Amino acid sequence: MRGYLRGCNCQETVTNHTAPREGPTARRNYVLLLAMNTLYTGLCGMWIMFFPLYASQSLGLSKTALGLLYTASEVGILTGNLAGGVLADTLGRKKVLMASLSASALALASMLLPGRVPVYAGFPAYFLAVGLGSPAIHALALESSPRRIQGTLYMLAVRVAPSLPPLATLPLAGYLYEQGMYSLLLVIGVATLALQLLLATLLTETETVSVQAGEVSQPVHHVLRRVLRVGDKWLLLLVAAYGLDMLTSNGLEWYIPVYTWKRPGSRR
């Protein structure tokens, strides 16, 4: 990856510092990441799930406006992922993750302000910040897992365990929403991000790149151009298919709550 990120006119070489994948440090990293991912889906997922209803019922957003807001959030995630991957490789995973959590908390806190404007600005900004930290947390999970069971531990940390808390927290979120307490869900989200940030301070960096004087960093579009030129075309098709699947499935998740909500006086 270093070849993608650095120009050829370097006066000194880049030094990589890699932490061991096994031992107490790696185990502590893994447990912290498992807790952080589980907290996020269980508690931050509460406000995200009921945001479409809040936006349409309380803020009066039309379905078209809601779709545009959703599109802006997806663009934010895409942009954040691209930038976050490059930054995680150059600055280190931990630094990028902590910056992402801090920015996410600020963006979400801004949505507590009255009116539509804070939501229009804060919602895409939140997902931009989340996208920024996503490559870092995935890299940390992989690099903190022993190679012989890396796939199993990775899926446990990023998919299996985080899918369990919503079974209990989403019904609670639904009850709070029906009681007119959506703002409390936002407060819980901000507190969760603050707790994640605290846990992130305890992480040990798994891999950092020491940039020496005289190196010239390449712009992101040059990095992408190299990846597209040398990459496996089948891999690119797989990435495109995965992205399309995420776009359509996320879109359905957004509109199902709005569609199924029964308006007063409606027969449906």
Automatic annotation (TrEMBL):
Q: Which InterPro entries does UniProt cross-reference here?
A: MFS, MFS_dom, MFS_trans_sf, MFS_Transporters
GO CC, one annotated term? plasma membrane
GO molecular-function annotation terms? transmembrane transporter activity
Key words of the record: Cell membrane, Membrane, Transmembrane, Transmembrane helix, Transport
Instruction: Name the predominant localization.
Output: membrane
Please provide an example of a Pfam family that matches this protein in its UniProt record.
MFS_1
> Which residue ranges run through the membrane?
30-55, 67-88, 95-113, 119-141, 153-176, 182-203, 234-256
Q: Where in the cell is it found?
A: Cell membrane
Query: In what residue span(s) does the Major facilitator superfamily (MFS) profile domain sit?
Result: 30-268
Q: Which Gene3D superfamilies match?
A: MFS general substrate transporter like domains
Domain of life (superkingdom): Archaea
Protein name in UniProt: Major facilitator superfamily (MFS) profile domain-containing protein
